[in-house]
Structures are given as C-alpha cells and as structure tokens.
Amino acid sequence: MSILLIPWAALLFGGFLFGKPDTYRRMPVWTRMASSAVLVVAGWGFALQQPTPYTLLIALGMSLGLLGDLYMAELIPWPRPHVLGGMGSFGLGHVAYIAACLWFGRAHALSQPQMQWGSWVGWLVVAAVIWYFLIYRGTTSRSVLVYAALPYALLLASTVGVGMGLAWGFGDGRFLPFTIGAALFLFSDLLIAVDLFTHRRFPLMGDLIWLTYGPAQMLIVYNLNL
Prior knowledge:
This protein is mainly alpha-helical and 226 residues long. The protein has one domain (2-225). The chain has helices spanning 5-18, 29-49, 53-72, 82-107, 113-136, 144-170, 176-198, 205-221. The longest helix is centred in the C-terminal third of the chain and has 27 residues, at 144-170. The model has no long low-confidence stretch (mean pLDDT 92).
C-alpha cells in the first residue's frame, strides 16, 4: 500500500503546482477527488491485508471522507446546502475513527485512561472556545449551520483528543501520525469555517485547505504503517 503514496502525492501536490492560476484555489476538482479516492483504496487495502476492527473502521472513515469531499465539491446534488451533506459525512467518518482508536486502546490494554480522558476533555474545551469566538461571535447569522458547527467541531476535536490520549498512553509514538492528522483535519475545517461564516478569504486559501486536509487523511489512514 505504500506505493499508493506516489500517485496520492502526485495528484494532490501536482494539482496545486500545475493547476490553473487562481486567487482562491489552483487545484482542479478531479485531482482533489482522485487523491482522496487513492486513500480509500489504501485504507481498504490495509483492511484486507489485516482485517481488524481498527483497519476496517479506518477504511470506513476514509470512505465517508471521500463522500464528504464529493458533497463539498457539489458533485452530489442533495441535500442543500451541500455543506450539510459534507458535515454529515465527515462527522460519521470521525465517529468511525474514534471507534477505531477506542477499540485499539482496549485491545492493547492501554492502562492510562486518565491521559485519554484528559486529552479528550482538553480538546473539547479548545473546540468550544474556537467555535464561540470564530463562528458564533464571528458572524451575525444564527442559521442552523452556525449551531450545527458546534457539535461538529466537538466531534473533530474528540478525534484529536482520543488519538493524543493513545499517543501519550502507549508512549512509543505509534499514534503520533494519527494525532497530527486529526489536528490537521481540524485546522483545515477551521479554514472552511472562516470562509463560510465570516466570508474572509486570503490568496490560495482553498489550496491551503486541501494541503492540510489531504495530508491529514493520509496520516490517519497510514498511521500504523509509516
């Protein structure tokens, strides 16, 4: 499966380097979607090579991530707004990622639950504070999307917290890539939130979203294989 990192990187970074000049995003849609599809193939490849609840849940989470990408790119026409479909798909994907981590911790007898709980609660607080100042107070709108963004942010932060708890608990770095990936995913979605709710943009913002999101998903999928 490691060989798939080559086409994944070529699609993601090549799409940025050789895409059309644009102030918001250079990457074409097809390279973005194809890069995620490569990670889906890699995820299921790992699951078939070593079928465990962990690998199967990670593959499922990445598949739901691709579905979210298709919604966000408006390649799936329903529901409207397309952001709801994306948030729902990504949210279910993160439920799968969290379930994978919890299974792994139990299966390998992680004996430091206080670290798991501490990191999880800490990241929940971080996500709530960011939501309040960046989204709730950053816009005058009180639409359903503004309030839906809170549980969504808490869910993404939970993935970071659970991964960090495992990284600390095992103490051998095996879940460090997962934790970094989950944190990058959260950062990427914060950029999307800035765009959606505050309508602030900067040059190549769309590319930065994908240059953090793509590696985030790669680190999660390849976590135990790097």
